[in-house]
Amino acid sequence: MSLLLFKVAVTPLLVVAATLLQRRFGGAVGGLFTGLPVTSAPLSLFLALQYGASFAARAAVATLLGLAAMAGFCAAYARMARVTRWLPALLVAAAASGVLFAVVSQVPQRPGLAAAVVFPVLLGVVLLIGRPLPAQATPNPWWDLPARSAFALSAVLAITAAANHLGPTWTGLLATLPVLSAIMGSFTHRIAGAEAARSLLRGIVVGALGAASFNLVVALSVQRTAVAWAYASAGLCALAAAAAGHAAFGAGWPPRPGWRAAVQRLRER
After folding, report:
1. Which residues, in sequence order, are CB contacts of 50 under 8 Å at separation 6+?
2. Residue with more model confidence, 180 or 115
3. How far is CA 14 from the centre of its chain?
4. What DSSP character marks residue 109?
5. What whole-number distance in Å separates Cα of residue 175 and Cα of residue 114?
6. Residue-wise over 165-186: b if at least 16 C-beta within 10 A, else e?
7. Of 26, 63, 153, 162, whose Cβ has the fewest other Cβ atoms within 10 Å?
8. For the chain, what is the domain count?
9. Please, is 137 exposed, middle or buried when counting C-beta atoms within 10 Å of its C-beta (0-12, 13-18, 19+)?
10. Per-residue model confidence as pLDDT tens digits over 103-132
11. How far apart are CA 29 and CA 167, in angstroms?
C-alpha cells in the first residue's frame, strides 16, 4: 500500500513541476524537463522494488531504446508543424513513432548497443529540428495542469500493473511512449503555433539525453549495487547530461526574459 501511495503522490508532482517550469521559462526549458525521466524514473524504481533488479535492468535497456522512437515522434511532429495543423501533424508523428517502436523492439537488449544507437539518434534529431523562431506567449486553460497530471499518473499505474504480463522489454518500451510529448506538443501547436511547439519538442529531445543517461546507468548498475545508490547515481547523471545538452545546443540558459539582450548591451558598451 505504501508503494501505491508513493506512485499516487510523486508522479503528479513531477509533472506539475515540469509544467510550471514551462510556463515560467518557456518551451525550451519546459521541454527540457519534460524530456527528463520525470515519469520513467519513478516507474523504473517501482519495477526494481516490485520485480527485482534484473527485471528493472532489462526494462531500463528497453526504455533506453524506446527513446529513439520517442525522438522520432518529436522530429516528425516538428517537421509537420510548419506545413499543417496540429491533428495531421499528430497523426503523422504517431505513425512514425509506431514504426520506430516496432523496429527498436527487435534490437538486441544490450546496454552498450542501445547507447550506441540512441545517443546519436537524439543528437541528430536536435539538429534536424533546428532552432525554432521566437514564439508568442499565450494563456493556458484551467484544466491543462490537472489533465496532464492525471494522464501521467494513469500511465504509470497502468504500465506498472501490467508489468507481469508485458515482461521487461515491452514494459520498458511503453515507458517511453510519447504521451506527454503528444499532449504538450499538440496543445502548444494548437494554442501558440508551430514555432512554440517546435521549441517545446526540441527541448524534450535535449532533455531525453538525460533520460538516456539515467536508463544506461540503471541498466549497468542496478544489479551490481544497492538500489538506492544505483538510482541516485542515475539521477545525477541524468541532470548532468541534460545540462550539458542544454548548454551545447544553446537552448537559452539562464532562461530569463531579456538575459541575452542584456549581455549583448553590455558587450556593446
Report:
1. 3, 160, 163
2. 115
3. 12
4. -
5. 16
6. eeebbbbbbbbbbbbbbbbbbb
7. 162
8. 1
9. exposed
10. 998 999 899 999 999 999 999 999 998 887
11. 34
Most confident residue range from 22-26, 93-97, 128-132, 196-200: 93-97
- Give residue 20's domain range: 2-268
As a residue count, the chain comes to: 269
Mean pLDDT of the chain: 81
Q: How far apart are CA 111 and CA 62, in angstroms?
A: 9
Three-state SS sequence of 42-92: HHHHHHHHHHCHHHHHHHHHHHHHHHHHHHHHHHHHHHHHCCCCHHHHHHH
Count CB atoms within 10 A of the CB of residue 268: 6
Compute the distance between CA of residue 209 and CA of residue 171 in angstroms, rounded to an integer: 20
Please write down the long-range contacts of 227-235, taking CB distance under 8 Å and 24 or more positions apart. Answer: 227/45, 227/48, 227/49, 227/53, 231/41, 231/44, 231/45, 231/48, 234/41, 235/41
Cβ partners under 8 Å of residue 13, min gap 6: none
The reported pLDDT for the residue numbered 262 is 47
- Band of residue 173 on the pLDDT scale cut at 50, 70, 90: confident
- Grid coordinates belonging to 168: 521487461
Residue 179: which residues within 8 A CB-CB, separation 6 or more?
151, 152, 155
